[in-house]
Design brief:
The protein has helices spanning 2-9, 13-20, 29-54, 107-115, 151-159, 165-174, and strands at 59-66, 84-92, 95-103, 126-129, 145-148. The chain is of the alpha/beta class. Strand 2 (84-92) and strand 3 form a beta hairpin. Helix 2 crosses helix 3 (29-54). The protein starts with a helix and ends in a 12-residue tail after the last helix.
């Protein structure tokens, strides 16, 4: 229950402790952390298998977002100051596998780590992401077919649709992306 509340619903350990207080059985946040640290050793093989399977996907989406983390141990000499959570969604046959990585690596570095597990005999996957260079994997041997999403550019066209309705309609209808772009007038 602790793992589901913390990682499935994003409830911090301190909040879980305070929710348990009225029930007369509070589990200290430090004890909850110890339980999760022990559990991660048991479920690590599951994560590794999910990563291996996601690497076999025919279409992969990736992006990252900045995160605030109080403390994150960095490797010596690391000049980076940002922390990110990268999401990688892989379409493997009828299955969709979603992976999330939080740390100092960008989405392209994280997807490169996933693609190291890809079977060599498979064709290159289609990678859907925005056109930021940090979303591209830098990995020898696997060169995904890049299908850059144009949603960011499309949004700027939509912002000026009242001033240039015909031109914007043509541009917005021509932009096709896999990230839920709606009709040209949205």
């Amino acid at each position: 229950m602790v793992a589901l509340s913390k990682y499935g619903n994003g409830v911090p350990f301190k909040r879980l402790e305070s929710l348990q207080q009225p029930l007369g059985m509070p589990l200290p946040a430090t004890t909850q952390w110890d339980l999760m640290a022990a559990a991660v050793k048991l479920i690590r093989p599951v994560l590794e298998e999910l990563i291996r399977q996601a690497a076999q996907g025919s279409v992969m989406h990736n992006d990252d977002t900045g995160m605030r983390i109080l403390r994150l141990t960095r490797e010596p000499g690391d000049k980076r100051t940002g922390t990110f959570t990268s999401g990688i969604v892989s379409m493997v046959g009828a299955w969709t596998i979603a992976l999330f990585f939080t740390g100092w690596k960008h989405a392209g570095e994280n997807i490169a780590e996933v693609l190291k597990q890809r079977a060599r005999e498979l064709p290159a996957p289609i990678q859907m992401c925005d056109a930021l260079s940090r979303n591209r994997p830098k990995l020898e041997g696997v060169e995904p077919l890049m299908a850059n999403c144009l949603a960011h550019g499309r949004r700027q066209v939509v912002e000026v649709v009242d001033n240039f309705p015909e031109e914007c309609r043509l541009v917005a209808q021509a932009v096709v992306c896999g990230s839920g772009c709606g009709p040209a007038t949205q």
